[in-house]
Each structure stands twice: as structure tokens, then as C-alpha cells.
Amino acid sequence: MPEIPHKNILKRLSDYLWEIPATFRADMQVPARIYASQKMLDDLFRDRSLWQLVNLTTLPGIFRYAFVMPDVHEGYGSPIGGVAALREDDGVISPGMCGYDINCGVRLLRSTAHIQDLRDRIPRLMAALYHEVPSGVGTGGRIKLRGRDLDAILEKGVDETVKRGWADSEDRDFCESHGRLPEARAEAVSSHAKERGSDQLGTIGAGNHFVEVQYVDQIFDEDAARAMSLKPGEVTILIHCGSRGLGHQVATDYIRTFNASKHRYSRDLVDRELAYAPFQSNEGQDYFAAMAAAANFAWANRQLITDEVREAWRKVFGNEFGDLKLVYDVAHNIVKRERYDETPLLVHRKGATRALPPGHPDIPLKYQQCGQPVLIPGSMGTASYVLAGMEGAMQEAFGSSCHGAGRTMSRKKAKSLVNGGQLRQELESRGITIAAGSMSGLAEEAPLAYKDVETVVDVVHHAGIARKVARLKPVGVMKG
Length: 480
Description:
Strands 7, 8, 9, 11, 15, 16, 18 and 19 form an 8-stranded mixed sheet that branches. It is built from 16 helices and 19 strands. The two termini are about 40 Å apart. The chain is of the alpha+beta class. Helix 3 crosses helix 11.
């Protein structure tokens, strides 16, 4: 195995940015960069995440540098929290750099209800959400789509949900990329993947996916908060999920294909989990089309969950507080075609969120003055953040930010240390209502298994990537 990075080779570029020089290993084509505070550095060497980061710098067509955000931890092939841009003309595309849960992402809904007006009704709301939103491993939803109906979702994403009455045009406007990657081709998705996804629209699954009821606890940037219609004390709902079994199967299918092509494309690959194909090859084009289709499926999934959440809201509150409105929806496992320094690139974000600055043409008109909303969920029972993209993200980070708190221990270890029932009692003693089908699943997501979200957010804020807009505190968590 090639040499693993160590602390004394890090070059300090600023208080929150560090670099592993391209001279560290002979196979590195560009430097590797790390967004972190001085206090976070020691923790970065407890797993293989920096070794995986250095591996990214060896890939053909890598542009400028590869880097990780402060929520970084070890993943499959690529570190979670990693970003790398590969040139379209002579670069590669890698499923391991996108991840198995294609377009796992977050969307934030807002209400006009103040937490003091409905705190006593939160348990009823959580029960309604648990009833309306299917959850759990392998759980199917109420909608079953096959054939042309499923293909339409894969190719049109949120556009198709608008057509079917599950969304309105305003929902579409406040999704990243309008909830659709146009490069999607349904025929690039295997029949097995389609079968796995046929009944999973409108479901959150398990793991770290959730529907969380929160309220706006603190405003840091009044102008940006006003643009996002976020007011102190008002209730919000955060949805976190992805492409379910369909996306997982797409990744599985193409990792297998790319490894079978290893004698042609990946002869000197450091880690077979990073199997790749040239973007311009038939295999590369097919994976990109299938990945885009899975991303569209995920946007449609979050949209249908939104429809279910709105139904639960209406059942509990009627017309008392009006409808839930979409603030924004962001992806954090995705490959997108973008341009930097006039170079067409494939930007791979795995556990990283797009963070576009004020004035960028790809964000809604409503947010042109403040920048794109960046949604950062905390660990269960801790605060989440709304940030706004800054120009520094474009200049230094391919328009990217962190995506969450970031794990510090495996799910297996968390279950060995935490009793799910006791955790539930602890959270409920703090005024957080829990609706969960599995106590072991709850234990996997215990706060002690994650980094401190406040520390993570401080890094990207002070690094000039995304600034703090609002902090959200939980009052109810629904998990599979």
C-alpha cells in the first residue's frame, strides 16, 4: 500500500486550510487540501480518509487539487466530505467518488407557525409524520411505478412530479438544478435497479435518513434570513434521504463494470474501490447517464416525501398555519458538469454540498443577493444550520461546502456503546419527540457517533466558503 499521510507533512495555507504537497507521493498529480481547524487535525489521522484523499489526486484528468471538508471521514473509495474535479476531455468518472446513495440530499420546508403555538402538539405531528412517510429498511411506499412511468421519473425528476400533482412549480424553482439533470437516460439503468426502486418513491429508508421538526433558534445574517423567509421561533422541517435501492444498485452495477474494465482503464489504480472509466468512453457516458437518472429519482423521492409531510401537517393543524413552503433542496452525493477557469469539468461531490455565491445564475432569483442556501444537518438531537454560499467557495472549492456533522465512529461501534431505548428517553427529556421503528437504528445515529456540528460549520464560515444564516433546533425526529 502506498504511504499514508502523516501530520508533519501538512503545509498550512491559512488558519482553516492545509495542504499535502504533490511531492508527498510519486503518483500524485496535484496537491491534496484539507479544510479544518488546528484543533481538528489530530482526528483526521484516525482512519483512512486522508489516504483516500491522496488517492484522488492520482486519477487521470484531476484538475487543480482534490480536497476534503471538515466533516470528512472514511468512505468507499473516496472519503466522505471529498470533492474532486476531473477534466471532461481527458479525465475519468468514478462511481466510488459519487457514492452508493446517489443524490442523498437535504431539503428544508418552512412554516409560519411559531414553536410556542404548537409545542404541545409536536407529539401528534410526529405520529402523523410516522404514519404518512414510510420508513425502514426495504420499506416500500404507496406509489408503485414501472415501465414508462418509472422511466419518466428517471429522466424528468421533479418535472414529472409537477405533472403528476405531487409538486408545484415553486417547488421545482427551489431545487438545486430544478430537480433534474438533463443528461439522464433511463435505458442506462439496469432492470434490477429499476425493480428495486419501483415501490420506493416517497420513502426515507433507514440509516442516517430522517424527517426532523425544528424551529429557528438564532439568526446570524438578517438580510439572508429575510430572503429565505426564516424568522426566529418559526417551525421548519428538514428531510434527509436519497435514491434508495435504485441508486445503490446503479453504483453496484457500474463499479462491477468498471472493475471488469480494469485491464483497459485502471491498470495502475491504487484502490479498486476507485474504479473508473474515461468520461468520453461508452462506459463513462453510460454511468453518467445512469447516475443522473438516479439523482432525478432522488429529487422526485424527496418531493413525494414533501407531499406526505404536507399531508401530515394538514391533518394535525388544518388551515391554521397555511402550507409548508420549500426553502431549498441540495444534493450531497453527485457528479455534475460545471466550468471553472473556462475548463469543462466533472465535479464529484461525495458528502459535500454545492455553495454558490450571490449573483450566480444557477440559483433562484429570490436568493441572488444573499447566495445559495446551504443546508447542514447536525447529528440527531443537535442543531442544524442554514448557510449561504460565498465567493470564496467558487475561488477555492469548486463552489462547494460541507454537508453535515460527519461521523467519528462506525454504526457497529455506536450500537455497542449506546442503548437505543435510553437514548430515546434522554432526547425526550430534552423536549425532542422521537418516532422510530428501530431502537438499534436509533443507537447507530447517536450524537456521540458524530463530530460537533458547531465546529464543522465554524470552519467553512471562517474559511469564507459559506456564512452562517440561521441555527435550527430540533423538537421532533422521525427515523426508520
